[in-house]
Each structure stands twice: as structure tokens, then as C-alpha cells.
What we know:
The chain has helices at residues 23-29, 49-60, 88-91, 101-108, 127-135, 167-177, 193-204, 236-248, 264-272, 312-319, 339-345, 375-387, 398-401, 407-412, and strands spanning 5-8, 14-18, 40-43, 63-68, 73-78, 85-86, 110-114, 138-143, 146-151, 159-161, 183-187, 208-210, 216-220, 228-231, 252-256, 275-279, 283-288, 298-300, 325-329, 349-353, 356-360, 369-371, 391-395, 417-420. It is of the alpha/beta class.
Amino acid sequence: xxxxxxxxxxxxxxxxxxxxxxxxxxxxxxxxxxxxxxxxxxxxxxxxxxxxxxxxxxxxxxxxxxxxxxxxxxxxxxxxxxxxxxxxxxxxxxxxxxxxxxxxxxxxxxxxxxxxxxxxxxxxxxxxxxxxxxxxxxxxxxxxxxxxxxxxxxxxxxxxxxxxxxxxxxxxxxxxxxxxxxxxxxxxxxxxxxxxxxxxxxxxxxxxxxxxxxxxxxxxxxxxxxxxxxxxxxxxxxxxxxxxxxxxxxxxxxxxxxxxxxxxxxxxxxxxxxxxxxxxxxxxxxxxxxxxxxxxxxxxxxxxxxxxxxxxxxxxxxxxxxxxxxxxxxxxxxxxxxxxxxxxxxxxxxxxxxxxxxxxxxxxxxxxxxxxxxxxxxxxxxxxxxxxxxxxxxxxxxxxxxxxxxxxxxxxxxxxxxxxx
Length: 421
Ligand code: EPZ
């Protein structure tokens, strides 16, 4: 696959972009196939390398996984001969691999999952995953970089209080608690739409779950799960990314399949800086209120329903050309400013003080050779390249293929001068 993207900036986007199914929902739903011998069918599954990686991991655990790309349907069915080793070679490519730990322990009482290790945006520990699964009765040892888990008998429901919201730890614990004996109460659970999507799918598999999307989730364990067909929720981070693409180019684009309810805080922020999002019949329309300018603002990233950390880098690209000084405080991850030095290479005026970036808007960005470091940083460089004066070449673009289905085609269809080279 060609590793670079070439963009000639300055084109105003106009046209329509379809929003795909949510990567982070797929990565949480796919491990459900480990919990049952019945078939799990997922629809609206995007073609992404992260989905491919999770498919490979599940196949290595004895699951039969078939992806019909043209129909965006994923069929998963656990074979009778499960394996319990999630190998480092796969896990190191994608931290979400840790999400097989809960289901393996819950169904088979054993698991050996490579510790995901850190990534560009932070250390990404899994202590909350282990704390919660231990409370349900699992016992862990760390051996040669692997988490080795065992359950004597079966998992037992209990009350678990998270010190702060963790999407992954909430998901892992839900996937274990649904087949544990008795009642589990998750206090300070993550409220992200992807957690609600996971619980919606589990309810259709016969699970008893209440309070998903709220502070406390209550789960009654069941003996087994039924087969189901589940439609993956749309990707709110992809949606927000293309909203910014329309805004940053002073364009006028329609986003089909979008749902404003999943991005309320983000859309309020866009309106505050002069970007209007109209919910029309079956699409969202993005336009600047006044073609002239984008206003500055201050942002703090928070767990849902706060401003999403996964849209922080993209918003920073937009605020780089706003009138005035903006501040972005990244509260979720300790190192999620890797896009800053690259945006500065394109003429942005950004200073970092601890976990806060201070962005002084400039009149224009200039095209430059830059490099991608992580998924959301890479797409913020694409956004900057769309508005920059001149040519931008972004290297290490495999990051973007992890989370943005057909991004070149989607942007090209709205008039962007963008191609892989
Ligand atoms: C999920 O990651 C998403 N990934 C991330 O999206 C997203 O940024 C993040 O949630 C926050 O919304 C998937 O869903 C596959 P967390 P996750 O546990 O579950 C700390 C993207 O770009 N923490 O909510 O790993 C952690 O280090 C990706 O699509 C612990 O300390 O995030 C972080 O600082 C990036 N101990 C904070 O909590 C733990 O055991 C929130 O992390 C777990 C997490």
C-alpha cells in the first residue's frame, strides 16, 4: 500500500459523504463471538485495518470470521476447539486486543493475552481491566509480558466501582459479567455510545442489562447467549472529522448517516466558533455561519458526553486558522499532542504548557512534508493540508487506514485534490 498522501490545499469541499460504522464499536463487539457457540452477525462494518487485526486475533483463538466487504457484513462463529493465547505479534498492533480477555475468562475460565504496551498517545495501562475482572473472580499473573488469567469455577457477580471512566475496562467487564453468576453493578461506568451499542447487541443476545449509558450499569448474568444480527452504530468520530473538513475548507458538505445526538457537546463548540450544523431529513449539512472567519474557543477533553479526546487533534487543525487564541486541555491521555510539531511545520502557532496547547490563529497554513504518528494526529494533518496554501505530503499514512474507511475517495468526491503516492 502506498505510504504517503499528497494534498494540494485550497479547495472548498462541496458534496456528500456517507458516514461508516464505528471502528471503536466494532472492536468491542467482535470479541462477543467468544462468549457463545452461536453465530454473531455484524452489519455496517467498515473496511479498516483495525477490524482486520481483530479478525486475525479472533481467528487465532479458534473463531471462524468472514467479512463480506461489498455488503459490509461480518459473520463470526466460535469453533468447538478454542485457543487461549492472544499473541504479542497481533496484540502489539492494536491495543483493543485486550478486549478478548474478559470474554475468554468468562466462557473458558482461562486466557493468556499479551500486555498491549504503550502507544504514541500514552502508557495506556490495563490495571482497571484487571481490577474489575479480579473482583468477578479471575486471578492474574504477569509472565514474560503476558497477562495470564484463570477462573476457578465460574465468575461471580459483584459491585465494582471504577475510580474514573474507562471505555475499555467498562466493555471488558460487561462482557464478563453478562455470563457471571448473579448480579454485577458497575459504578462510574463509561457512557460512550460504543458502550450503549455493545449493550444493545448483548440485550439482543438475551442478556439482562440496565443503565447502559448512565453512571451505574446493572447486569444479571445468564447461562448462555443467543445468536443475533446487530447493526453497528455510526462512527461519531469519523462524523466529527468530516464536519471539520467542511468547516476548515469553508465548504458546504452533506454527511449522510450522521446522528447529531452522539456529538452534542462537539456540535455546540462548532456553533460557538461559527460553524453551523443543520440536521436535515437524512443528512447533516455543515457550513460556516459567515464565510469570513472561524472564532477561537477553549476546549477540555472529557469522557462522554464531554468533548471527545478523539476529536482533539482535528479541532486543533481548525483552530490553527481561527481568529484569536484558543486553548485545548487534553485530560484523557498524557501524550496526545504528537500532531503539534507537524502542524507547526505547516505554519501553525502553537505552544504546549503541560497538558494544555495554546493555539494562536494564523491567516494561513502552508503545505509541507509532515509525518503521521497516530490515527487521529494523521487525520488532523489531512485537514490542515486541505486548507494549506500549496502541497502537503503526509508520510506513515498507514495510521489513517486504521480508522478512516475510504478517506481519499470520500474527500475526492467533494472536490479535494488528494491522492496516495
Ligand atoms: C477507547 O480507548 C478508544 N479505543 C480510544 O480511541 C478513545 O480515545 C478512548 O476510549 C477514550 O474515549 C477503542 O474504543 C478501541 P480508556 P481505551 O480506557 O478504552 C486510562 C481512537 O483514536 N486507563 O477510556 O483504551 C487510559 O490510559 C482510540 O479511536 C487506565 O489508567 O480508553 C486513559 O488515560 C484512541 N487504566 C484513560 O484511562 C486502565 O485500565 C481513558 O482510557 C484503562 C484506562
